[in-house]
Write a structure and sequence with these properties.
The chain has 493 residues and is α/β, with parallel strands linked by helices. It has helices at 2-32, 35-41, 73-81, 118-121, 125-140, 168-184, 195-209, 222-227, 229-241, 257-261, 298-301, 327-345, 365-376, 380-385, 396-409, 445-448, 472-481, 483-489; strands at residues 63-67, 105-109, 163-165, 191-193, 214-220, 248-253, 309-313, 319-324, 350-357, 392-393, 422-428, 460-464. The protein has 18 helices and twelve strands. Helix 7 (195-209) packs across helix 9 and helix 17 crosses helix 18.
């Protein structure tokens, strides 16, 4: 009987101290990131949201998705194309009708602040977290600008009923904090991240083929790899399914790949005809101590030549510098080094599956697969670790299913249509005197990654998608790889 009466008291004490501890953590976070209280309390701030009057009935609201650039459109495309369920019964039974056919979306590409993967490498993850909080704030709020030079915001944007973080790096560093601050703002809006979904997909493969003699490869941004988000999530789900087995995970940072895909001049310059100055190029190179180009791996790289690879030689014809200048060459570099890591660490294991841990990478799934096959056919060492049926996992599929289950559980399905979706992109704010903006209308590298938190400054303006902000090559890629999504985005053209 003594235990019976003492247990509730112990539970009450535990709950009491847990609440105090959580409140202290919340207070420290709010003090560290002033934007959290600014959004909720400071009506004069450009970031303020009237959370007290957030819509209570939300079925008709759109679903919000954000990414560090256009790569997250691959996630949106997976959501739009999902047909795993019956639209009448909501049971697992494809019916030939898209599962989200009655939903509209609001998409934000935070192009001005991308690539997110570099903030950790530059020692500035706090600013990245603040950026992610601002991304969420935009989706929850009503404001945007028609043009960057406008001083008065338009307020006819709809708030959202759920938020998807399509970006792996934003998920790794920002998911936990934004989930907590959304609650702190008094909103019961779910925020779903992509890393957990991708990790579940990898483990699901082992349910059918087993895990013996296998290693999971992860291609992701520098930031995502540094966070160890994928290894932790994979190990967690693996332990739940295979308690008596072990799984190996090897990561390779896609240094510069996301930036190159989105045309970031710090990584790729189509107009360049020779090696660029060091302060202008931030990709792999002969003299990059962290991500070196190894001349002894020249055959493995199999680089595209010409303007796609900028090479400098001395008077004797010796190569003294190499810079990547095409998306394909970044792919070849990253895939090669992932294979080499696995060959060195686990020479007797198959590399399968490989998670494409950045939303930009599925755009080039074929090119990634092709280079794996090139390495496989190069010699017996690579042939031993790279299987013919190597599986490249796009986590977006699992995320789409998770989102669907959320709408079912909370009875949040709408009655609109995809064509009424809206698309926005961030650009440097030309009206902010403190801003440094180069001739290409971008933040210079040192300024972008050197900014600090708690400035209460509108570094960017968020405007609708247009030709001015999305170059022709990216539009062409979207049109060819995701025609339905392209039609929704550029429906008025």
């Amino acid at each position: 009987m003594k235990i019976y009466f003492k247990l509730p008291k112990l539970l009450l004490l535990f709950t009491f101290f847990s609440v105090i501890s959580c409140n202290k953590v919340s207070k420290r976070r709010t003090e560290k990131f002033q934007i959290i209280s600014e959004i909720k309390k400071e009506k004069g701030s450009p970031f303020y949201i009237d959370t007290e009057h957030y819509p209570g009935t939300r079925n008709s609201l759109p679903i919000g998705i954000f990414d560090s650039g256009t790569g997250g459109l691959t996630v949106l495309n997976s959501i739009l194309e999902l047909d795993d369920f019956n639209n009448q019964s909501r049971e697992d039974d494809a019916d030939g009708i898209a599962d989200f056919f009655s939903e509209r979306f609001i998409y934000l590409a935070d192009e001005a602040n991308m690539p997110y993967g570099k903030y950790d490498a530059e020692g500035n993850t706090d600013f990245l977290k603040e950026v992610v909080i601002k991304d969420v704030r935009f989706l929850l709020g009503r404001k945007y600008y028609e043009l960057p030079g406008d001083s008065i915001a338009k307020t006819d944007k709809d708030p959202v009923k759920a938020i998807v973080i399509a970006c792996n790096t934003a998920t790794a560093f920002g998911l936990e904090i934004v989930q907590e601050v959304v609650k702190e703002w008094g909103l019961d809006i779910t925020v779903i991240g992509i890393i957990d979904a991708g990790s579940k997909s990898a483990v699901d493969i082992f349910n059918s083929v087993g895990s013996k003699d296998r290693v999971v490869g992860v291609l992701a941004t520098e930031g995502t790899c540094a966070s160890n988000g994928y290894p932790k999530a994979i190990q967690k789900h693996f332990r739940n399914e295979f308690q008596h087995e072990k799984i190996k995970v090897v990561q390779q940072a896609g240094i510069g790949l996301a930036g190159a895909i989105d045309g970031d001049i710090n990584y790729i310059e189509p107009a360049a005809a020779k090696v660029r100055d060091q302060e202008l190029y931030h990709g792999p190179g002969l003299n990059n101590p962290q991500y070196p180009i190894d001349l002894s791996l020249w055959q493995e790289y199999n680089f595209e030549m010409g303007i796609n690879l900028l090479v400098s030689k001395d008077s004797d014809g010796n190569i003294i510098e190499v810079q990547l200048n095409s998306v394909n060459n970044y792919i070849k570099y990253c895939v090669t080094h992932l294979a080499i890591k696995i060959l060195q660490k686990h020479p007797d294991r198959n590399m399968n599956p490989v998670i494409l841990g950045c939303t930009h990478y599925p755009f080039f799934k074929k090119e990634i697969h092709d280079h794996f096959m090139y390495l496989k056919n190069l010699d017996n060492n690579y042939n031993r670790i790279i299987p013919e049926d190597i599986s490249l996992i796009d986590p977006a599929q699992s995320l789409a299913i998770e989102l669907y289950h959320y709408l079912v559980l909370n009875s949040l399905f709408g009655s609109d249509k995809n064509e009424n979706s809206k698309f926005y992109i961030s650009v440097p704010n030309p009206l902010l005197p403190e801003n440094q903006i180069d001739e290409k209308n971008e933040f210079p590298y040192s300024y972008k990654y050197g900014r600090s938190v708690n400035k209460s400054l509108q570094f960017v303006k968020i405007v609708p998608f247009s030709n001015q902000w999305i170059d022709e090559e990216i539009r062409f890629r979207i049109k060819n790889s995701m025609p339905y999504t392209y039609e929704i985005i550029f429906k008025e053209e």
